[in-house]
Amino acid sequence: MLVEEGPEDRWQVEQLFDLSFAPGRELLSSYRLREGVEPVAGLCLVSREEGAVGGAIRYWPVRVGEVPVLLLGPVAVHPTRQGEGLGAFLIQSSLGRAEELGHARVMLVGDAPYYGRFGFSRLDGVTMPPPTNPDRVLGLALRAGAWDGVNGTVTRDLEPFVASPSYGT
């Protein structure tokens, strides 16, 4: 069952991320962009079976230059559920919701061959805080041309997202 992450899910989700990623994951540049910022409500999802979280995905507001962007990540699937397509389901479902909410563009730091199947491609001219390999900075336009002319350094976005058809244009 796929549902929005609630406050009651926080510790199970954090445990899943700890299990799924290397120690020190919170030292990565993408985590510095999340400090002091609330994740985007409505896009942070969990897959639950019999009360246990089997997969989770989160999104965060960032800016590239002055332009609002969604930062996807982390996304994780419990080792006992891997290979079932749950990660792909979380990504596709959340991207559909992001588009419905009026977001124009999404970025992440990840493996191009894996995320390419969802339409992500390398973002030239977008700089993540170091140390980030530029080949792993990927983006997806949820609206045609949404990444056209968008470049600069990625920074935290402390303004809460307000659903609007013109957001991110």
Task: Describe the 3D structure.
With 169 residues, the chain is α+β, with helices and mostly antiparallel strands. It has a single domain (2-155), classed as 3-Layer(aba) Sandwich (Aminopeptidase), CATH 3.40.630.30. 21% of the residues lie in helices and 30% in strands. It contains 4 helices and 9 strands, in the order βααβββαβαββββ. It has helices at 10-20, 29-32, 86-100, 112-116; strands at residues 2-4, 45-49, 52-64, 67-77, 105-109, 121-122, 126-127, 137-141, 152-156. Strands 1, 2, 3, 4, 5, 6, 7, 8 and 9 form a 9-stranded mixed beta sheet that branches. A hairpin with a 2-residue loop joins strand 2 and strand 3 (52-64).
Give the SSE map:
Blueprint (H helix, E strand, L loop, with lengths): L1 E3 L5 H11 L8 H4 L12 E5 L2 E13 L2 E11 L8 H15 L4 E5 L2 H5 L4 E2 L3 E2 L9 E5 L10 E5 L13
Parallel strand pairs: 4-5, 7-9
Antiparallel strand pairs: 1-2, 2-3, 3-4, 3-9, 5-8, 6-8
Q: What distance lies between the first and last C-alpha atoms, to the nearest angstrom?
A: 33 Å
CATH homologous superfamily placement = Gcn5-related N-acetyltransferase (GNAT)
Shape: globular
In CATH terms, what is the fold-level topology? Aminopeptidase
Task: Tell me the number of structural domains.
Answer: 1
Q: In total, how many beta strands? A: 9
Q: If helices are DSSP runs of H or I spanning 4 or more residues, what is the number of helices?
A: 4
Name the structural class.
Answer: alpha+beta
Average pLDDT rating: 88
Biggest sheet record? 9 strands, mixed
Low-confidence stretches: 163-169
State the CATH class: Alpha Beta
Radius of gyration (CA) equals 15 Å
SSE run = EHHEEEHEHEEEE
CATH architecture: 3-Layer(aba) Sandwich
Beta content: 25-35%
Proportion in helices: 10-25%
